[in-house]
Amino acid sequence: MRTRNLIFIIAAIFVLGLPASAIAEPEHQVAKGESLTSVAAADGLSVAQLAAANGLSPNAELSAGSTLRIPPQSAPAAPGSAVASDGAGPGSATAGGSEASGAGTSGGYRVVYGDTLSAIAAEYGVTVYELAAANGIDPTGLLPAGMTLSIPGATTAATETAPPPASPSVGAQPTDQIVSPSEVGKVAATHGVAPSLAEAIGDEESGFNNDEVSPTGAVGVMQIEPGTWDSLQSELGGPPLSPESAQDNVRGGVELLRSLLEQTGGDPQLAAAGYYQGLESVRAHGMYPETRRYVRAVMALQARFGGG
Question: What's the predicted TM-score (pTM) here?
Answer without folding.
Answer: 0.50
